[in-house]
Known about the structure:
The protein is 44% helix and 15% strand. By secondary structure, it is α/β, with parallel strands linked by helices. Strands 3-4-5-6-7-8-9-10 form an eight-stranded parallel beta barrel, surrounded by seven helices. It has a two-stranded antiparallel ribbon with strand order 1-2.
Amino acid sequence: MKYRRLGxxxxxxxxxxxxxxxxxxxxxxxxxxxxxAILQCAADLGVNYIDTAPLYGxxxxxLGRALxxxxxxxxxxxxxxxxxxxxxxxxxxxxxxxxxxxxxxGVDQLAVAQIHEVNLAGWDRIVERGGTLEGLRAAQKEGLxxxxxITGRAIPLLASLADTGEFDTVLFYRDYHPCQLLASRxxxxxxxxxxxxxxxxxVLAGGLYVGGEDQRKxxxxxxxxxxxxxxxILERLEEIDGTLPQAAFRYVxxxxxxxxxxxxxxxxxxxxxxAVAADMQPVSDELIEWIAEEDRSGPAExxx
Length: 304
């Protein structure tokens, strides 16, 4: 496993990290053992960064139990939002949410506390007195988290928040992979200006790089021209070494602005497959430029 600097936090995090949304797997009766197996696999592979959230079902509780039995030093991040359903992103709500998360996870402190889906909070609520940012700062003072961050798909808002210099990390999802370069145009430059750690999530785009029925469903969401473009890219990726999921991870990891690519693995095999990408060669400059040309010919705007 290779490690990268998480922006100005100076934490060295694994190039491939673990996302907690699907830790429970497909069998709820086996959720705890599945989560433990994934976490042990992560430790064995050298994965040291985990991202979760109250929204992800029992993820925090499952992680908490798994962390108590797996011996390894993990950086654990979580988020504020969605818990309870009428979460209002105020300072008091932020503090109460993070207290619950720390308790469920059984950790002394979160590495990063993040705003879940910044668009739901909105610029005004985030920056106003008594708002979300004030809550995150208060959480830092109380020792609930070491660093603070932002997450979501609202690329213009994420970029604007990144330019404030107030946040240490940014996590985005679905908007940067071989068939979708949206986050690279505005958000990554803004994050770089503020020396933020960058977490890229859902780079498999809901199954686009998995094949089979999941891939067909994702392609069917596109119009004819975008579907044809995505199919050209997928065919080109099939020509390089490794699997399609590995190719997607390798492509994103070829961008030095990315600190870590998060795998929302639902089982050990899924994590093992993409973790290998951290030690594989980056995709070629020629392929990167070819994909950029395909993007310039007709970019998909936050569809994939």
